[in-house]
Amino acid sequence: MMILQNVKKILADFSFVKMCFNFYKNLKSQYGFNLFYWISGIFRFFIDLRTFQKIQNNNFKISSQYYMPFMSDKTSHTPIEPTYFFQDTWAARKIFESKPERHYDIGSSVKSIGIISQFIPVTMIDIRPIDLKLQGLDFQKGSILKIPFPDKSIKSLSSLCVIEHIGLGRYGDPIDAFGSEKAVEEIQRVLAESANLYISLPVDCECRVYFNAHRAFTREFVMQLFGGLELLEEKYHYGRELFDNYKPEKGFGTGLFHFRKV
Would the pLDDT of 262 be above 70? Predict the structure, then answer.
């Protein structure tokens, strides 16, 4: 083992080896093992490199060991995942408008919740710890099936694209056919009187399990699950658009719901 480590260290000192490793690592992450895209990507890279070298002003060192090809970003439009774009901006607006003293979140996008925490203090709850520290953001390890807070103690809570995964084993959680129902029940347990709840989950023309990725819900079933709460707002994302109404004829989408504990 020690000999192998020494060999790797010696090879890593060679610029050509570093260059090959960087090409392999980056092209594989961008194109998988598609040989055509590899060849065209490398070709375009060296064309751009040659152009750059002709006008290089020597303020920055350039060496083959530092080559780091990213060729898949040359797109005509900014790549964006619409579900998270719509749901996270929607939730941020709702939370900022409400101005709670502290907001709580269960399992949503860490990046989005981190941004919200710079304006409103946030406690984030997740089964997987965060290994970064950020002022305004507190982390509490816990499960949505056993939220580590007393009954009726939380006044502002979000859980975006989480409920649909519970009990499918995707994130290492135990298999449970009623995981989503139990998660909703536990969420309602910790909501204080007049608390705001922001939820997003997949919607479809019927309740389905896309095992083991997620479930999808009808609007009727969502209203049944959260029957003890008052619905203040609902939005629906289909394709690359956001709608005010549930449209089952469009098939799979994402529902955004603002409930209040009455």
Answer: yes
Binned at pLDDT 50, 70 and 90, residue 165 comes out as very high
| CA–CA separation, 76 and 249 (whole Å) | 31
Q: What is the mean pLDDT of residues 87-96?
A: 98
CA distance from start to end of the chain: 64
Query: Whole-prediction pTM value?
Result: 0.84
Amino acid at 123: T
Peptide bond into 22 cis (omega under 30): no
Cβ within 8 Å of residue 173, ≥6 positions away: 127, 143, 165, 166, 167, 179
Tokens describing residue 174? 């135990």
Domains of the chain, CATH where assigned: 2-66 (no CATH), 82-261 (3.40.50.150)
Secondary structure (3-state) at 228: coil
d(Cα 185, Cα 169) in Å, to the nearest integer?
19
Over residues 209-223, the pLDDT tens digits come to 999 999 999 999 999
94 burial type by CB count under 10 A (0-12 exposed, 13-18 middle, 19+ buried): middle
